[in-house]
Amino acid sequence: MTELEEKTERLVHILVENDLDAVIINAQHNFAWLTGGGSNGVDLSRENGIGSIIVTRDGDRFILANVIEIERLLAEEVSEDDFDPIDFNWQGEKANPASVLEKARFVLETNARVATDIPMFSGIPAIEGKIAACRYQLTPNEAERYRSLGVDAGAVIKKVIDNIAAGESEIEIAEKIRHELALGGMTSVVTLVAADERISRYRHPVPTGNPWSKTLLLVTCAKRGGLIASLSRMVCIGDVPDELKIKTEAAAYVNACLLNATRPGVTGAELYQVAANAYTEKGLTDEINRHHQGGAAGYRTRDWVAHPASGEVVQEDQAFAWNPSITGTKVEETCILTAGGIEVLTASPDFPTITTVIDGQTYSSPGVLSI
């Protein structure tokens, strides 16, 4: 069974389970997931894409787009062998967005029960939560693409670090991250850089003109083929201060506890408690209140985040990005839970690591690079 066939089967199961005849998929992340990395994105400020896919209860697949977009989508993003094309004029779409739904009904029964992935049409249910569950378990091909992305993203961040110098601004460093990722076919959908005191002040340090003097935090969520790999790195000029070492080792301990607890059947709420307990063990109970700890990853930076009321359940072959932070430092990698355990994807070459043993298992987290 191909990747597309397997994902179609998952969607058909959802349709049958919810007494639906078809679903219209338009969100950029869902389009990328179903097509194995294709893109319907042009305006990246929107969740919606410029083409939609219909999957029916019988497993039929169609692609809908206006005449501006359909030719390129078929040439560069999807195959006409896999999706029957339906086009329409752009004027009608602009005048009446529901015309897309009307066009979709041409290939469905008149009274077909239709849903969308995200809210698109009045009176039509959106089932993004159910489709998200279809995305959680990676196919073998997806896992390989994710591994390649993780390796490349980790290498890019190390390359950037090797080519920056004190005095450069956070904005200049952020642009180097974006540039180097782009050369590898990646896009940084989140780019954070904090120099010196801004590391302690803000958990989401959007880059500014602040110049780097001593300590630096670099963060990226690198996207390629729809998949997103998240990672953070700490850098220090000269000797790493003892306080920073201790805090980073504590964050690595929380990370290791989370990695160790990320097992099939565990809930997001249980993982949150694991992190909370780990902070308390290190005498840093309040740090969990200052930022979320991460969660499931894939075609969104986080499909779900671990929190006290989370009922989401960990699955085998699911990706995760944990990001424990302590005021002044942070640890973050992306991994896959495989049958053999946790596999970290985003390790940077020649970067210092902190090893932590939990329940007899050894886990590695990024340390602080002294340059």
Structure write-up:
The chain has eleven helices and 18 strands. It has helices at 3-17, 28-35, 70-77, 90-95, 99-104, 128-135, 140-162, 170-183, 197-201, 242-261, 268-281; strands spanning 22-27, 48-56, 61-66, 84-88, 114-116, 187-195, 215-224, 227-236, 294-297, 304-305, 318-322, 325-326, 329-330, 333-338, 341-344, 353-358, 361-366, 368-370. It has a five-stranded mixed sheet with strand order 4-3-2-1-5. A five-stranded antiparallel sheet has the order 10-9-11-14-15, covered by helices on one side. The protein is globular, with a radius of gyration of 22 Å. The termini are far apart. The mean pLDDT is 97.
Describe the structure concisely for a colleague:
With 371 residues, the chain is an alpha+beta fold.
